[in-house]
Amino acid sequence: MGESLMHLSSRHASYAAASLKRPTTDWMVRVMVVALLAVLAPALPVRAQDAGVVEGQVMNGTEGGAEIGAGIPVDLYLFDASLEEQVLTTETDADGRFAFEGLDTSALLEYWVEATYQGVSYGAAELLQFAEGETALETTVIVYETTEDDSEVRLDLVHIFAESFGEVLRISETHLFGSSGDRAYIGEEDAGGRRGTVFVPLPEGSVGFALGEGFPEDRFAAVDGGLMDSEPVRPGTLMSEVRFSYHLMASGRTISLERSFAYPVTNLTVLVAQPGLSLASEQVLSTGSQQIQGRQYEVFVGENVGPDLPLQLEFTPVEGIGVSPGTGGMPGGQVPSGGSAGGSQGPLLLVGVVLALVVVVGAVIYAATTRRPAAGGGADAGSTSGAKASSLLAELADLEDAFEAGEVDESSYERQRAEIYAELKNL
Predict the structure, then answer these.
(1) Domain annotation for the chain: domains and CATH numbers
(2) Alpha carbons 66 and 145: distance in angstroms, whole number
(3) 73, exposed or middle or buried, with CB in 10 Å at 0-12, 13-18, 19+?
(4) What confidence score (pLDDT) does residue 390 get?
(5) What does the CA dihedral 349, 297, 300, 203 come to, rounded to 10 degrees?
(6) What letters, b where the CB count within 10 A reaches 16 and e where it falls short, cover 11-21?
(7) 274 vs 25, 296, 300, CA distance in Å?
(8) Residues in the chain, pLDDT under 70
(9) Whole-angstrom Cα distance, residue 357 to residue 361?
């Protein structure tokens, strides 16, 4: 499930994204452990010992699935304190087992195993690390048969961040998908041989659409009404992630947002930047304020939204108050992740208990959605803007930066900002 937590390197970001494939829900802890390892690394001695062995079994988790035999590709990822990544490759034997020998057993190193079955990669449930005096580690990788049926797919978590920039509202979203079945959803193949998996609807009237950092350029396709992903959805919780942002222009005192979802949403969190913006909706419940990296957010939780019940949000910018795009109003760096995120008060209370953790992780997930414009066809998906809107929004951000730095006087700032707003509204 990109960018990195506390500015981890892109290589560790790749690891974190791959970790979404694991059938586990403690990915957040593991990513934080990796970050901590990087911080503590200079104080720890390095002792290269090349007698280590990582071995294990590849097993089929689909009921009635084929026995795993020889020829399944298995990769071993090694992560060291310098944030460098190494990859070793082998194949399973006739019994579905694998082994990597001659490994460094240093306490600074962590290993992670991934197997590829029927074109879908699956990770082990845990990171591996040699303890003092230990030379052999064992792990298991569960793989699954595939399906073109998406009836078991759901949105485990949806995070929506909203920030006001005067007449412009920036929305940043993270969607985390999972499946309650025992087969990996791979979607149907089109005439060109491309498979489409989960569909992500995008709101009408949005401008400046941008994908989050770290996604392959060819992963998404622009389709009518939104984006079509090509990433398989593996069995389990929080198996696939989509991050993106867009802008909405104010046409009056309020800005209405209707969010449609193609799959049932288990947990929904809306975070509204404060001060400068208020939210009204009968579908979400305010749980109070949360400070995230020095920025205050009002946090709302909701349930029971999905294909048959869109989310209706009504935002009202507070006149004269807003966040400048260049002043660090967004919460911190971000890791591509996986993360955990349905109407009765019982589930709402449960969401409240875990909200602090969810919000912090949501902040970590957030920032990369604002930094890279989508490439190719995806840039215009579901929006009325395309390259012109992205260019205007970049101009607006630069203008805000210059004004905050005292490089532009107030009258010039107001005039230029009004001109940009006018152009955006005419798109």
Answers:
(1) 5-145 (2.60.40.10), 153-380 (2.60.40), 387-426 (no CATH)
(2) 8
(3) middle
(4) 54
(5) -150
(6) bbbbbbbbbbb
(7) 31, 5, 13
(8) 1-49, 82-84, 319-394, 396-397, 400-401, 404, 410-411, 413-415, 417-427
(9) 6
- Separation of alpha carbons 397 and 163, rounded Å: 13
Give 183-213 pLDDT, tens digit per residue: 999 999 988 889 999 999 999 889 889 998 8
Query: With the CA atoms of 269, 336, 108 and 103 taken in that order, what torsion angle do they form, in degrees rounded to the nearest 10?
Result: 130
CA angle 41, 4, 363 (to 5 degrees): 120
Q: How much is the pLDDT for 326? A: 38
Q: What percent of the chain shows pLDDT beyond 90?
A: 49
Is 396:422 a contact under the CB 8 Å cutoff?
no
Hey, CA dihedral for 271, 315, 416, 245, is it positive or negative? Answer: positive
d(CA 53, CA 38): 24
SS (H, E, C) the chain: CCCCHHHCCHHHHHHHHHHCCCCCCCHHHHHHHHHHHHHHHHHCCCCCCCCEEEEEEEEECCCCCCCCCCCCEEEEEEECCCCCEEEEEEECCCCCEEEEEEECCCCCCEEEEEEEECCEEEECCCCECCCCCCCEEEEEEEECEEECCCCCEEEEEEEEEEEEECCEEEEEEEEEEEECCCEEECCEECCCCCEECCEEECCCCEEEEEECCCCCCCCCEEECCEEECCCCECCEEEEEEEEEEEEEECCCCCEEEEECCCCCEEEEEEEEEECCEEEECCCEEEEEEEEECCEEEEEEEECCCECCECEEEEEEECCCCCCCCCCCCCCCCCCCCCCCCCCCHHHHHHHHHHHHHHHHHHHHHHHHHHCCCCCHHHHHCCECCCHHHHHHHHHHHHHHHHHHCCCCCHHHHHHHHHHHHHHHHHC
pTM of structure: 0.70
Q: What is the pLDDT of residue 31?
A: 47
Asked if 81 and 41 touch (Cβ cutoff 8 Å), the reply is: yes
pLDDT at 408: 77
Cα distances from 72 to residues 87, 101, 102, 126, in angstroms, run 16, 18, 21, 20
Quick: pLDDT tens for 45-83: 444 568 999 999 999 999 999 999 999 999 999 988 766
What per-residue confidence (pLDDT) applies to 413?
65
Looking at residue 124, its amino acid is: A
